[in-house]
Structures are given as structure tokens and as C-alpha cells.
Amino acid sequence: MIKFCVIKELISLQAVILAAGEGTRMRPLTYTRPKVMLPIANKPILEHLIENLAKAGIKDIVLVVGYKDETIRSHFGDGDKFGVKIHYVTQRKQLGTAHALKSAAHVIDVDFIMLNGDNIVGCEDIKKIAAYDCVVGVREVDRPQDFGVVRIENGKVVDIIEKPEVPPSNLINAGVYKFKEDFLEFLDKTPLSKRGEYEITDTILLAIKEGFEFEAVKINEWIDIGYPWDLLRANEFMLEKLSETVIEGEVEQGVHIKGNAIIGEGTIVRSGSYIIGPVIIGRNCILGPNCFIRPYTSIGDNCHIGAFVEVKNSIIMRNTNVPHLNYVGDSIIGENCNLGAGTKIANLRLDYREVKATAKKNKISTGRRKFGAVIADNVKTGINVSINVGAMIGNDVFIAPGAVVDGYIEPYSFVR
């Protein structure tokens, strides 16, 4: 049984967010940025998490950074504009979650919540976890064998089993924890795991053997982002929360907007354009004339979506141009890209089966019947380029006019 309790007022609590990793499964998008800085609904994953912590009343935050940490530091600064206070700690070698926490131990002086920076956890769930002394957040999933599975007795965690062939339950470790300050003393005793890392789950099991009790607290709002296509699912979830249309830019006569849409300051939507929400469009963009923006699309700042362009259920990052006679469906396009006139991205197999894509050089199923392409930063395509379903295109790739693109394209390639 999973226990619940009445939420009590937060008096003094820190949050430690692990944000040092690269996220190799998210390549090619993470060649140029850390995973936590990938955008969902026009905000980095990490920003959504920090906002939820602040709403829950936890405003003293320790960020453990490492890979391309300058990207994180420049975006968040001291945290003041986000209503929090941020301390930065550098994990110079990514040797596991327990090692990351040990890197931050010198700035932790109260009880604290620890979270993975590449997951989004709801505000109410954070409050619920904060009400206990020691917690492992758990979540019911369909494929527990892909995670660490938690074994529970009388509401207490008794074991955490990494990716078992036969899971004892469908409750997984969600990577959200509440620790007492004296838990830190077990970090030095944590052994190296079979994966060659110092893992926080091993530290927890050591503490349990020494008499610590960890409550299993069920998390309701939790978004796990493991592969690039998971960004689309997360983007859909966040855009569903839009409750109204907010227009801060200019919308010309003859534009049709159905459903909820956010249109940023300085953006111009030209006549004949048709937008079906939920959709978010950033600042200083130009849309149309006569473009079609379909639901669950996020368009970043300074983008151009031009005449006779259709974009459906996609993430287009800032400073990217999709200007002439293009189709983009169920895809992720990075920063500073330019699609030549007539470039199209296919998003449906002819046999209607699930689309497969390449991750860490292995073809795996995306779990999606409709999935287009992942295009990293600074990619340029010539006219009439065709990009097949599941294509993964690295950063700084040039694609010649009329080319057909399929599979995985390494960064800095030239495709003829």
C-alpha cells in the first residue's frame, strides 16, 4: 500500500537538481546543448521543473551541472528572474547520481528534495513528497522492466531492482526523492555499481539497512523524457494546459485562430493563415501569409513560417526558417535551421506501422505511428528535399537540392 499524508507548510527545504549529463539517447539534439535545455512549449525542460518547485514553495535550489554547463548558467543566472535562488555545483566527471549528490553535499545544510533535471514533476506532487521525512517517489508504468522497479512492504521501500526481467510490480522509481540531511553520510559508503557508477539507489538501500525508512509516495504528474520523440509527447501534455488565447503580437485581418494559442510579442501573423490550437508561437516571428499551423505545435522566437507551409504537432526551435511550400509533421527541428523551398518531411509509413528511428546507433521503435524527423541545429536543406520517416539529422548538415534523406546523418555531413 502507498501512503499519503496531509500536506504541511514548507518551512526550510532545499532542492537538488541533477543536470550534469549529456543525454546520449537524445542525440543528435544534445551535441550542442545539455538534455535539460531542450525546449517543451518554448521553455527548457529544466525551466518547467524549477517553476514547479517555486510554486510548491521551494526556492533554494542547487543545480549540479557539467556537460555544456555554460548554457544552463547563462539562461538561469542566479535564479532571480525565476523567483528562486540558484547555487551551481560542477560535477566534472559524470560518475553517477550518488556521485552528483556528493559533489553538492558542501552546499546542503537542511533536508532536501532531489530530482532529475530531465523529468518534469508536478507542483502538487512536490508538495506531497515534501511532507515526509524520507521518500522515494514512485509511478505506475506499462513497461516497468525498462526502469528501476520498487518493492514495497507496508508502504515502505524495501528494495529497488534495476530493469528486472520479471518485475515484482509496475511501480518504478521516478527519480524524485526526499532526504534528511544526515542521509549524506552514506554517500562515502556507496559502492561502485555494475555499470561503473555510484548510484543513489545503492545509497538508499545502504540507509535502509541502517534503519532509515523510506515512504513510497505515488506521483501523479510525471513526464519522463528518454528519447527525442518523447519531446513531442511532453509538448502535447504541456500545451494541453493552455486555458486561453493570448495575443501579444500583430494578427492581420483574414487570420483564423481556433482553440487556444499563445502569440508572442513582436510576432506578425499575416493574412490567410490558419491556426488550430493548442499552439504556442514565440516572440518576433513572421507567419504566413497563407500558412497552416496545426495542433500541438511550438514555434520558438525569431522564426519564419512562410507562405503555403503546413506544420503539425511539431517543435521548431528559435531562429529557424520554414519559409516556402514546406510540410513539417510530428517532427523536431533545432535552432538556426533553414528548409529550402519544397522541402517535405514524411511522417507516416506506407504500411502504417510504428516508425523506427536510430538512437545510439540502434534502430528502435518510437512507439508512434506518426513520426517525422529529428533535425539538429544549423541544418540547411536545398529545394525539393525529401526527408523520410524516422530520419535523424545531426547538427551543421548541408543537404543538396533534390536529395532523399533517410536513417542517421552524422553532424557536419554533406548529403547529395
CATH level-two architecture of the largest domain: Alpha-Beta Complex
Structural class: alpha/beta
Radius of gyration: 22 Å
% residues in beta strands: 25-35%
Distance between the termini: 59 Å
The CATH topology of the largest domain turns out to be Spore Coat Polysaccharide Biosynthesis Protein SpsA, Chain A
Determine the CATH superfamily of the largest domain.
Spore Coat Polysaccharide Biosynthesis Protein SpsA, Chain A
Helix content: 10-25%
Major sheet attributes = 9 strands, parallel
- The overall pLDDT average reads 93
**How many DSSP-defined strands?**
40
How many domains would you count in the coordinates? 2
CATH class of the largest domain: Alpha Beta
Shape: globular
